Description:
Helix content is 37%, strand content 21%.
Amino acid sequence: MDRIELFRIFVQVVDCGSFSRAADVVGISRSSVSIAIQELEARVGARLLHRTTRKVTTTQEGIAFHERCRRVLEEVEEAETLFRPSGDPHGKLRVDLPGRIGRLIVAPRLPEFLDHYPNIDVMLGVSDRAINLLEEAADCVLRVGPLADSGMIARSLGELPLINVASPSYLARHGIPREPADLDRHHMVLYASPSTDRVETFEWIEHQQACFRTVTGRVTVNSAEAYIACCLAGLGLIQIPAYDVRDQIATGALVEVLPHHRAAPMPMTLLFPHRRHLPRRTQVFADWLASIIAEATAPWPDAQGAAS
């Protein structure tokens, strides 16, 4: 096995923290990964990884070598594209997006991207679960909401407006809330984060300050699809990104409530692995994604379709 391939396998093992995961990403057997690491350690004359039955960790030598390998692989990728026209990016792109954004915004527009860039193939991950970018070997992931300090390269894609909605059948039974205090006499469909299981409270901005109110509900869900479906079924109010229910509001299936008590918009951020230069295929995808998300998530007008 040539040295560059050994470097790629080693970097993948470190990023994934697992021989098995690295084997899946690279597309070879676990035993081949093990043999490659042994060969690399013999070549460099140092132990690079600590192996146990439960996990793989990096030695001090491995930490230093991992950074060098990353730089070498970046240089190789740049060298391979040195004489390609700048408008001809190529290769396989691994992307991970939140479920509804992937299904409603990106997938319907993806043909135009693939037509424009015929030499790029896209592996599109769509999930409400926050993945580990390095373990999954993703080229970029879209995060919605505040970010933890991850050390990744971040690009802001703007903000996602949030609105409060309910079904006409729910409002006919329970009345229309006028103020957040009215929610004490209402039900909400509760949303539990699929990553942390934390149940969200009702939030709104008042006098430029974030306000929160604990609400009750008989149904708790952990996916955006179920969240909207339960609201449509008349099980309670929800706070939801406006683009998610634009069509339902247009048809009257859902109605905006408490239009003057909306939560703060959620930031959208595209994250990339830490590297000096992003591959051209990642750059063009990021630019395209930014443009279609900006179109789909334009600022929501005041009190559009609000119940009265």
